[in-house]
């Protein structure tokens, strides 16, 4: 072989070697850069993943019950119930854990978490015997967040809708009875809101606006405790603007349905102070409303 060929071969081989060396060097330098911000990529290649240890579903579930019932640690209990679903998603234990997750969230005051878990339960297991309870937990979570009457009552409306869903879907369940009682409580809250606004308008001497609020109570919330005061306030407002016939009717309907009410005594005295007597006009919207409800 000539010296010239040998020289060409040497440099050719050296070029390939240098190229390979440069490539390896580049990779080694790139590894820590690629993992910047999340840890070394090299460590990711060499580390062993020992974070997941599968355990029996019933063991995890019972640990959740212990944390919930004995330790009163709802967040820790919830993590156990969620772990059952993660490790054994298609098991019967996962179904039970989902319901217990909703319950633990409710007990811990995490109402949004309860609504989310219970809604998922009803969606995935609509035919389950516990679906009624899950639906009730949704409604109870809304109900327990009802604000006072000085604030917006959108959440009260949501609570009523959710409670009515319990009654509609599960009318024969034990939860339907409780839901009906809560519905009345929520309706009383809405009536209280209307009365609060009506009194505000009356103080401003905007009697027409006040009458509209009291009218809502009389036409929509007759079974609440606010209806007696609403009839008195109607008597008061109608007397103030000189529509004495409606004032007499409001007082008469109040006396007929709630004869022992202190509001009737006030309404009676107010009408008498104008030289009038309570007298029901059968054609009045007040009279028609109560007759329609079987209260007149």
Q: Could you explain the architecture of this structure?
A:
The longest helix has 32 residues. The relative contact order is 0.05. This protein is mostly helical and 296 residues long. It is built from 14 helices and no strands. The N terminus is likely disordered. The N and C termini lie far apart (125 Å). Helix 9 packs antiparallel against helix 10.
TL;DR of this structure?
The chain is mainly alpha-helical and 296 residues long.
* Binned strand content: under 5%
Structural class: mainly alpha
Flag low-confidence runs.
1-38
Largest sheet: none
Give the termini distance in whole angstroms: 125 Å
Radius of gyration: 36 Å
Number of helices: 14
Inertia-based shape:
elongated
Number of strands: 0
Can you lay out the helices and strands and say which pair or pack?
Layout: H1 3-34, H2 41-46, H3 57-69, H4 74-87, H5 92-107, H6 111-124, H7 131-143, H8 154-169, H9 174-203, H10 207-220, H11 227-241, H12 244-257, H13 262-273, H14 285-292
Helix pairs in contact: 3-4, 3-5, 4-5, 5-6, 6-7, 7-8, 7-9, 8-9, 9-10, 9-11, 10-11, 11-12, 11-13, 12-13
List its salient traits.
disordered N terminus, mainly alpha
């Amino acid at each position: 072989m000539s010296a010239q060929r040998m020289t060409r071969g040497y440099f050719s081989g050296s070029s390939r070697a240098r190229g390979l060396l440069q490539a390896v060097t580049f990779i080694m330098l790139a590894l820590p850069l690629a993992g910047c911000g999340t840890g070394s990529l090299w460590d990711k290649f060499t580390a062993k993943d020992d974070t997941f240890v599968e355990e029996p579903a019933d063991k995890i579930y019972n640990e959740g019950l212990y944390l919930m019932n004995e330790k009163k640690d709802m967040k820790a209990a919830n993590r156990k119930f969620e772990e059952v679903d993660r490790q054994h998603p298609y098991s019967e234990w996962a179904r039970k854990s989902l319901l217990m997750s909703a319950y633990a969230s409710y007990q811990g005051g995490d109402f949004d978490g309860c609504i989310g878990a219970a809604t998922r339960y009803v969606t995935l297991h609509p035919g389950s015997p516990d679906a009624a309870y899950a639906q009730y937990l949704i409604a109870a979570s809304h109900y327990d967040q009802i604000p006072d009457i000085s604030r917006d009552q959108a959440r009260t409306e949501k609570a009523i809708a959710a409670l009515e869903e319990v009654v509609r879907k599960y009318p024969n369940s034990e939860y339907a009875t409780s839901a009906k009682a809560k519905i009345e409580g929520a309706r009383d809250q809405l009536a209280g809101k209307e009365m609060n606004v009506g009194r505000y308008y009356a103080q401003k001497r905007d009697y027409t606006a006040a009458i509209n609020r009291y009218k809502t109570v009389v036409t929509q919330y007759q079974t609440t405790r606010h209806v007696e005061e609403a009839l008195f306030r109607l008597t008061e407002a109608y007397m103030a603007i000189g529509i004495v016939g409606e004032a007499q009717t409001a007082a008469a309907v109040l006396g007929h349905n709630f004869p022992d009410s202190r509001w009737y005594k006030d309404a009676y005295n107010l009408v008498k102070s104008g030289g009038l007597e309570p007298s029901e006009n059968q054609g009045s919207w007040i009279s028609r409303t109560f007759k329609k409800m079987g209260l007149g």
